[in-house]
């Protein structure tokens, strides 16, 4: 089955998920705005043979779809609690918001970080130079990011990130669906999902094999665009 048109899903959609309106009495009331499940920018089978169409379809529709559904329910609940002044309730759902909202934010970056092999080009320009200066080249970066991502205990994400304070790039990981922002004021450039749902159907328990194939379909043009926006 084919995913529809290209979209550039960004965290901006998440940031705009709440609306505030004034009531007749002049009191402000908060309303939740539903977050849509973004379409993939390619067909489900576009990343084959590196990542199977079955994985992509299940991953997008069922896994990302569930994070979006749960996140929307929580945003509604949050708005309702805020309007009622139920602050203890608000606090009690923050972990669930981090998990499901993080799942939406992370996957939205991940889909656009990949492309068909026919569209693959190695990083160049400012990002290519930064990778060379920081890691000594693309292969060294991939080796480091693969090793760190393979080492994530349980489920999580591997990241190539930008640190605006130091004007530097670095590799790190996050657990579960924690978005990169939980580690500091960093910008995610490239994310790789190392939950088993991202690879088990095709690679079984061989996470390093999945990671090696992931790097065959990285959309470095998208990573470059994210780097350019972060450094502008
Ligand atoms: Fe996932």
TrEMBL record:
Top-tier EC class: oxidoreductase
One Pfam family matching this protein: Sod_Fe_C
Domain (Manganese/iron superoxide dismutase C-terminal): residue spans on this chain: 123-226
Organism: Chloropicon roscoffensis
Keyword Heme tagged: no
Compartments where found: Mitochondrion matrix
Binding site for Mn(2+): 59, 107, 193, 197
An example molecular function term from Gene Ontology annotations: superoxide dismutase activity
PANTHER family with a match to the protein in the record: SUPEROXIDE DISMUTASE 2, SUPEROXIDE DISMUTASE [MN], MITOCHONDRIAL
Entry function: Destroys superoxide anion radicals which are normally produced within the cells and which are toxic to biological systems. Destroys radicals which are normally produced within the cells and which are toxic to biological systems.
Protein's UniProt name: Superoxide dismutase
């Amino acid at each position: 089955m084919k995913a529809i048109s290209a979209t550039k899903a960004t965290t901006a959609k998440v940031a705009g998920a709440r609306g505030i309106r004034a009531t007749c009495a002049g009191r402000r009331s908060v309303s939740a705005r539903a977050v849509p499940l973004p379409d993939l920018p390619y067909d489900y089978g576009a990343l084959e043979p590196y990542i199977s169409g079955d994985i992509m379809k299940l991953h997008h529709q069922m896994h990302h779809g569930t994070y979006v559904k749960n996140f929307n329910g929580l945003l509604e609940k949050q708005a309702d609690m805020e309007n009622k002044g139920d602050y203890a309730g608000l606090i009690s759902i923050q972990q669930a918001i981090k998990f499901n909202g993080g799942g939406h934010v992370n996957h939205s970056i991940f889909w656009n970080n990949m492309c068909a092999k026919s569209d693959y080009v190695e990083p160049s320009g400012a990002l290519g130079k930064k990778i060379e200066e920081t890691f000594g080249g693309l292969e060294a970066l991939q080796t480091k990011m693969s090793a760190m991502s393979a080492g994530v205990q349980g489920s999580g994400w591997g990241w190539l990130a930008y640190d605006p304070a130091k004007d530097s790039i670095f590799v790190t990981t996050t657990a579960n669906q924690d978005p990169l922002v939980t580690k500091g004021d960093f910008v995610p450039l490239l994310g790789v999902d190392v939950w088993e749902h991202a690879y088990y159907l095709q690679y079984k328990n061989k996470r390093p094999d999945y990671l090696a194939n992931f790097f065959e379909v990285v959309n470095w043009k998208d990573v470059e665009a994210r780097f350019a926006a972060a450094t502008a």
